[in-house]
Amino acid sequence: MASDKAWCHAMIVGPDGDDLGRFVLGGPGAPDLASVDEVAQMILFAKRLSGVLVLSGVSRELRELLELSGLSVEMQGEPELGKEPIGLEEGQEEGHLGDAAL
Question: Mean pLDDT across the stretch 28-47?
Answer without folding.
Answer: 93
